[in-house]
Amino acid sequence: MRVIVCENYEELSAKAAGLVAAQITLKPDCILGLATGSTPVGMYGNLIALCQKGDIDFSQVRAFNLDEYYPIKKDNEQSYCRFMYDNLFSKVNIDLKNTYIPNGETDDPVQECERYETLIRDSGGIDLQILGIGQNGHIGFNEPDATLNSRTHLTALTDSTIKANARFFDTYDEVPKHALTMGIATILRAKKIVLLASGANKSRVVSALLNGGINTSIPATMLKTHPDVVLICDRDAYSGARLGVDIGGTNIKFAVVDGGAVQYKSAIKTASSCEAILSDISSEIIRIMGEYHVKNVGIGTPGIIKKGLVTCANLPFDKTPLERLISEKTEVSVCVDNDANCAALGEITFGNTTDCSNIVLVTLGTGIGGGIIMDGQICRSNENIGEIGHMIIQAEGGRACPCGQTGCWERYCSMTALAESAEEYALANKDSILYHLYLENGNKLSGKLIFDAMDRGCPAANTVFDRFLNYLARGIESLANIFGPDAIVLAGGVTVQKDRLLEPLQKKLKKDVRVEISKLQGDAGALGAAML
Ligand code: F6R
């Protein structure tokens, strides 16, 4: 999607009219797809002026409108039929016989939709489709969760759309509750699409569109599957760049995201005092803000966040009001969340699961971390949610966990646990390659050494890893049973061994679960924080 950011609505209207005019000049008998609503009114004004000056000629143009309220009389002041007549058709030299709008007066809306869809298809298809965008991401009247393959159809308007449209009617009751609309598939068949967005009330949805993945809960994101879409928005609607910060025990990572792409990344060392960490982060934010038009900063931190206060065992944060302190120092709006939540948000927004609404991120590290996204939102019901590493996987005789329980998943499937299992097994198999590596490495094993031993055909190492996979599979099945996610994403050092991990793991799974390997790995936290 190409993005054109205009200074104001006037510039947006002129640019959009320029694209329509160019289309008519290139193909005088072109087919336009047109929208109503307040946004394209300025564009229509510009087109009228161009036509009246003789710069463009509508005489051979055919136009199909996106939608019409249902039921509504054509002469109702609020009908889209009337809107198009008043705002464009009556003021340019278009032949009214070449203008088509779904018939809101029909007794048979289903048949009317079929007729309209056929009419569009038989015309040869829309050359240029103009769209506005609703605050909930609707295009045409394809409301959230519209299906990708829908054709022209009768649809019920959501409450938020009815409320948004109420401004055009005298009372709420007068606002039609249904509409006939081109479907997403109809829209996506257009050869070229121009999407218009103006005003601060569109900035949230524009941000989701530009920075997020394809998600049926925001229908406009489906435009990302089309090869030729231009978004023209004004400064108020444009969400600006977002800066994500991921605080780790060793490094603090920064990432600037704009227009759905990573524009910049940097990292600094984590200082040892709370004051130094806050001052380092603030200075780096201020420096980056000097280069990028950053409107929001998100910060991911390990530890527990309760009422805005961060407490963390591995960092010098003890009920530290991180959000407030950094906002004060940088004078920008800051939002803080747990780092595992951020990483999950990063994965669903930029990783291998952008087509999902529900994922569980499982980070296999020193322990096991988890981030849960449901309906595109981070699950934050309380500060302990996502402690998936402490799910009991071995009910009897399980390994002791520092959390006080026994048999926790992270005592079998964290990288620490994998190394521990390998050490136990090496000691019990002193003729194994694994044991030799254990001795060579100062009586210690690591994930890397286990894989080295496997490369050298060590049966002991294969057994250790096979057991690890068994436990991993049982944990994943449990997560799938509890959350029913669209996918489970695995992250952490061991996942670089994708071939060794994924296929054997899938064979062990007794449930049909989609498992993905993290695409972003160490960058997921900062990218997700940017999206908070
Ligand atoms: C209009 C249409 C709608 C609007 C959208 C934005 O034909 O299909 O999708 O484009 O509701 O409306 P405005 O421009 O009024 O904010």
Automatic annotation (TrEMBL):
Catalyzes the reversible isomerization-deamination of glucosamine 6-phosphate (GlcN6P) to form fructose 6-phosphate (Fru6P) and ammonium ion. GO terms for cellular component: cytoplasm. The active site is at D67, N136, H138, E143. PROSITE patterns: GLC_GALNAC_ISOMERASE. This is Glucosamine-6-phosphate deaminase. Its EC number is 3.5.99.6. The keyword Hydrolase applies. It comes from the Bacteria. GO terms for biological process: carbohydrate metabolic process; glucosamine catabolic process; N-acetylglucosamine catabolic process; N-acetylneuraminate catabolic process. Residues 12-226 form the Glucosamine/galactosamine-6-phosphate isomerase domain. Keywords: Carbohydrate metabolism, Hydrolase. CDD domains: GlcN6P_deaminase (cd01399). It catalyses: alpha-D-glucosamine 6-phosphate + H2O = beta-D-fructose 6-phosphate + NH4(+). Belongs to the ROK (NagC/XylR) family. Pathway: Amino-sugar metabolism; N-acetylneuraminate degradation; D-fructose 6-phosphate from N-acetylneuraminate: step 5/5. One of its GO terms (molecular function) is identical protein binding.
